Amino acid sequence: MTWFIFAGDMLVMAFMAALAVWVLWGGSSEAVDEAARIPLQDELDGMKDDPGDG
Amino acid sequence: MADRTSGERYHDRVASWLTAFAMAWSIVGMLAGVYVAAELVWPTIDFGREWLSYGRLRTLHTNAVIFGFGVSALMGTAFYSVQRTCHVPLFAPRLAWFCALAWQVGVLAGGISLLAGWNGGKEYAELEWPFDIAITVVWVCFAIVFFGTIARRRIKPIYVSNWFYGGLIIVIAMLHLVNSLAIPVTLSKSYSLFAGAQDAIVQWWYGHNAVGFLLTGGFLGMLYYFLPKHAGRPIWSYRLSIVAFWAFTYSYIWAGPHHLHYNAVPEWVQSLGMVMSLVLLAPSWATMVNGVMTVAGAWQKLRTDPALKFIVLSLAFYGLATFEGPMMSIKSVNVVSHFTDWTIGHVHSGALGWNAMITFGAFYFLVPRLVGASLYSVRLANIHFWLALAGTMLYVLAMWGAGVSQGLLWLSLDEIGELSFSFKDIMASMAPYYALRLVAGIIFLAGALLMAFNLAMTGKGRRTVAASPPAVGVEGP
Asked: Do A41 and B155 make contact, defined as CB atoms within 8 angstroms?
């Protein structure tokens, strides 16, 4: 069982390492920057910041 | 470049109602919490009535705040943000309304059943089998609306908040289905399919990952959407947020056995739970650093934006709770902290400091936009901020004091190796801490009541408002 768990852990770690490499090297910086800006460009109309006081 | 269908509007009314329901449940849940805290100071105030007893009101407290307040807030913010981050209106909006309303009916009926004494006996999964089936139906509908919206998105990347909301929906479904497996005996009673140590392992696989994927992952989805909106700038490192999501998902699912240290489960299971809890520090703090660095260029907004104050404070408590949790999972620390009020302090530094604060921050942003009116009072929101901070700090400090005292006194032996203090003596010494906890709860509840008033008054200034998807889409990485 110990070896089974160890092998499973190593598979998980291998996946994480591969994912980190893929995310860091995959995709252009411009595309990543565009994705990061999604919440800032998500509607045509709606309220602007206008805090009031009652 | 994405195409555009003219005249489409986001479906925001369902998010408005879910926000209102969440606020109502927060008051109910916190009120029940304050009452059970008072019962620990004055044990006779249950007046001999079973439905007012600690055991029943405490489960009402946890169910109302987690499933009433927490899930309603998550559902509302998920419906609000998934449309915007996909540039399309909600998929199956009528199903979204069904989710929103059926969930409220379920939480209300479930709460009444808990007061009536129906209880499956599993922590954070106390509701009996008829409710388990109802939860499954609503959750599947939630998944259809959420993933249906993502499936027809007009932009290629799936924004990181949707990864966290999606993780919440999938993992909670898996946990709920397995942990709820039971044989019904009557309408109000069932017995778990699991027994003994297996039951304990399944329960804490469910329990800890419900904390992980609902109270942490789900609310991180909220953070990754509302923090950039508040700060007016994109997340500091988008790549780091994606790595943190996967690291979080793969680490968290193993961490549950740290609840079972020194119990009748295999030693290696306990150790594995501890190790994976320590690994969790990395994605948790990566997220916190990412959040703080996002705000770093917008500190001036903290002076004028009470909502941003709540979000920044929630990040601080997120960092604190996600450091404290792994430390408590270390077996030599756990020998002191286990079964003590330290655990209650840890849970509430997360629940009040992280979950409630980030939700308050999101609501102060969301409600004025949903109703098309300015926030009724920024001053009241600022007062709420200080009440929430004071209440949380007092609560956590009181429970840390109580918990460390309990743990050390329980371990104390006299010269012949017998316990130095009886359980009764130790409990009696807790009275000042429990009184402080009650005061802290009242302060926090007072802040939530101020917020409910402020947002209700904001709603009175409602005008018709509708937002549309933007014309330009985004090509993703």
From this structure: no
Please state, in angstroms and as integers, the Cα–Cα distance from residue B366 to each residue in A51, B30, B308, following that order: 12, 22, 12
| DSSP three-state, residue B477 | coil
The residues with which B413 forms a beta bridge, in sequence order, are: B419
Contact B99, B145 (CB under 8 A): yes
* Separation between Cα atoms, residue B437 and residue B435, nearest integer Å: 5
Does pLDDT of B472 surpass 70?
Answer: no
Q: Has residue A48 been placed in a domain?
A: no
Q: Per DSSP, what are the bridge partners of residue B68?
A: none
pTM reported for the whole predicted model: 0.92
How many domains, in total, are found in chain A?
A: 1
B371-398 pLDDT, tens digit per residue, is 999 999 999 999 999 999 999 999 999 9
A42 vs B contacts (CB less than 8 Å):
84-85, 87, 469-470
Q: Please check whether residue B444 is in contact with residue B405, taking contact to mean a CB–CB distance below 8 angstroms.
A: no
**Nearest C-alpha neighbor of A12 from the set B281, B250, B245:** B250
Q: What are phi and psi of B192, to 5 degrees?
A: -60, 145
CB contact under 8 A, A35 and B477: yes
Handedness of CA B364, B367, B370, B374 (dihedral sign): negative
Cα-Cα-Cα-Cα dihedral sign, residues B93, B95, B96, B102: positive
Question: In whole numbers, what is the pLDDT of chain A averaged over residues?
Answer: 73
Contacts of B423 (CB under 8 A, 6+ apart): B410
pLDDT tens digits, one per residue of B407-451? 999 999 999 999 999 999 999 999 999 999 999 999 999 999 999
**Cα B234–chain centre separation:** 24
In chain A, which residues have their Cβ closer than 8 Å to the Cβ of B225? 39
Nearest chain B alpha carbon to A50: B374
Residue B1 has pLDDT above 60, yes or no: no
Domain that holds residue A24: 14-38
Q: Is residue A6 included in any domain, yes or no?
A: no
Residue with the two structure tokens 């297996």: B198
Single out the residue of B213, B93, B196 nearest to residue B152, CA to CA: B93
Residues of B in contact with A17 (CB under 8 A): none
Rounded to whole angstroms, the Cα distance separating B213 from B164 reads 8
Q: Is residue A50 situated within a structural domain?
A: no
- Number of residue pairs across A and B with CB atoms under 8 Å? 118
DSSP of chain A, one letter per residue?
A: -HHHHHHHHHHHHHHHHHHHHHHHHSS-HHHHHHHHTGGGG--SS-PPP---B-
The reply to whether A2 falls in a domain is: no
What is the secondary structure of B295-342 as a DSSP string? Answer: HGGGGGGGGT-HHHHHHHHHHHHHHHHHHHHHHHHSHHHHHHHTTSHH
| Distance in angstroms (rounded) separating the CA atoms of residues B168 and B6 | 32
Name every residue whose Cβ is closer than 8 Å to that of residue B427 and which is 6 or more positions away in sequence.
none
